[in-house]
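Narrative progress, year one. The postdoctoral researcher (J.K.) led the effort to move from monomer predictions toward full complexes, under supervision of the PI. The following entry was the first complex the group processed end to end, covering 538 residues in total.
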Amino acid sequence: MEFFFQQLTNGLAVGGIYALIALGYTMVYGVLKLINFAHGDLFMIGAYLGLTLLTALGLADHLSPFGVIALLAVMVLALVAILGVVLERVAYRPLRQAHRLSAVVSALGASIFFQNIVMLIYGAKFHVYPHDLMPRTVVHIFGMPVPLIRILILLASVVMMVGLYTFIQRTKVGTAIRAAAIDQGAARLMGINVDRVIALVFVIGPALGGVAGLMVGIYYGQINFTMGWIYGLKAFTAAILGGIGNIPGAMVGGLLLGLIEAFAAAYLSIAWKDAFAFCVLILILIVRPTGLLGERVAEKV
Amino acid sequence: MLLKIENLHVKYGNVEALHGIDISVEQGEIVTILGANGAGKSTTLMAISGLVKVSEGSILFDGEPLNKLPAHDIVARGVAQAPEGRRVFGTLTVRENLNLGAYTSNDQQKISQNLDWVFELFPRLKERRNQMAGTLSGGEQQMLAVGRALMGNPRILLLDEPSLGLAPLLVKTIFDTVRQINQAGVTVVLVEQNARAALKLADRGYVMEVGHIVLKDSAANLLANPDVQSAYLGGRG
């Protein structure tokens, strides 16, 4: 029972991280119908920025561990968001009128660029987050021990997801984002500045992805300049699983994929962990290509 | 003169769709633009709204040029459009669609006044306000498209084929409502293939053929014009 519970909480924490990254894929796809292949690398940059800020500013000497992490999260969020907007401006906006494939190639180029620039700056080796960043506190839930960090990661990702969902569903700007995702031309006829909506999507997605990078750094301790690739693919799988373009879908897909992976690794074979994730991708594409929560494509009259 | 279009050219790639057209609309008028498929009627409206680029000529709204402005600024100046095919946001509710029509406005009191007005014009929308727009019938979607355009308190309303695909009774309802909207002080430009209904409603009309204006006259004269009758009104009027 305890083993099961450990897998459950671990799966949920990792799933929360996948969900945060998946949101960036799904939101950009929703508005631009573009898979932003550089998104995983923005996530990776979030992890590196977190580490750099942590060591450069010597935060740990002045603040409590939670204060350090909160401050880091805010800074990483802001910096990666800026990077996201720059990426859109430089790599995607000039290609807005071009064929869709051109933007995909540009995205792959941006991905390679980000990986190499990080490799040049930090080197190709693994970097390690300080072990003493978080006290190794263990809390007991139903009498079973769970690392506090795991709970915090799950909580933080759920809070961000609920916040995003509320913003998208309840606010005027959120409605404008949904409208632009359905029909850009009609959105412009409503007086919505679609360029600004797209820029906003490139603020929100990368910001969440960057924080997810920080979370992985804190949770696993190790980061590498190629990590964006595998996490990006997993999160992309999560987005497809939930239904690409669908925001609640990305959240559900992320959590579900985290759980599937954790249980498959624990009860079947850990060596096949990644294979299980991608089997899920293949299965969903065969059985239900619109994803679990994917809407039928709205009919165009 | 509220709207003055002079020598308007629009190109799609290398193909010119509008070859220099002139249209003028006075404050308070209903002006209709008639013509067959591909004549350039919708292109004209899209050029006014800033969704297609003007390659030559000018569009003046209340003396100010629109053709250099981005689409969202044009809407903010009081030019609203209910586009061809309705283009309501299918997975948003009726209420959300209407709210988006008032996107450029921050005056909550004015917005709720407009909402009351739209619900008065189209009671059906009030009944269905929490329903997804995609689940509405074609006629209801057209009502929503028109209502949505009115939410921003426009000075001029551009209607692109509001009768398309609707039952005759519904067409009459929509056209009666357009008259009411006009009587409330909104200038209307109506693009239609249903020429008879449009001319009965309008003050003046333009007839377009392959990117040119070939006729302009009062609606009554156009209704009586034998050429218009044979080409657009199905023979003897």
